[in-house]
Amino acid sequence: xxxxxxxxxxxxxxxxxxxKSIKQIFLETNWEEAELEYRIVNKFYEMIDNSKNFIExxxxxxxxxxxxxxxxxxxxxxxxxxxINLDYYRFIRYFTPIEHFVYDLTRINRTIQLxxxxxxxKYILDFGNPYFKIGVECDGKEFHNFEKDHNRDLDxxxxxxxxxxxIKGVECYSxxxxxxRFESDFFExxxxxxxxxxxxxxxxxxxxxxxxxxxAISHYYLNEHSYMDRYSSTxxxxxxxxxxxxxxxx
Length: 250
Fold this sequence. Notes:
The chain has 10 helices and 4 strands; from the N terminus they run ααααβββαβααααα. By secondary structure, the chain is an alpha+beta fold. The radius of gyration is 20 Å and the shape is globular. It starts with a helix and ends in a 9-residue tail after the last helix.
């Protein structure tokens, strides 16, 4: 395994090459602003698609978000539901099956936008939102180690102020009593369900289903009273149970 310097040197070299490449785009073009941003996004994805290894790909991720991070935060301050279109579907080829499933769920307009492969310090999160400083990690059993993940999440919280929530693979495929796969399936039968059954469903939904965990995050951080007033206890439990450092949701 190469030493740390052996990783950092090519990382910096690739970064310098990318900066020069991006500067060259500005020097050689005179596009209108909207067209320029479109071309810049395409250039970043070109770099990602042409990357030879994960180091080059991670450098490209960092430059993509460095360019757009201030825009994301600025408009999120004005509207917490702000969603920027950066053609994230082009990340799909690099997603694990769990990341792909979660990505599809994040496209629901009622949720906070979570940006894929978001860089924070020395880390690349599966999904992140820089305005709320929250990240979502997709935990496939074979790729994660509790102690390492715990130390990583603790470092992200202590040194960067980010809270990390984790979704397990099994939670992507969980069903409520083998009947309701998504919240939308539940609402199709809403008139047939009594209040006790609704409470039991939402308790399970927020705590055991990927869609519910993402919705719990959104309800809490967007301060959606219609849900928080009714299900605050189970929403808070979900957020507490899906981070490794036992953070309270404050």
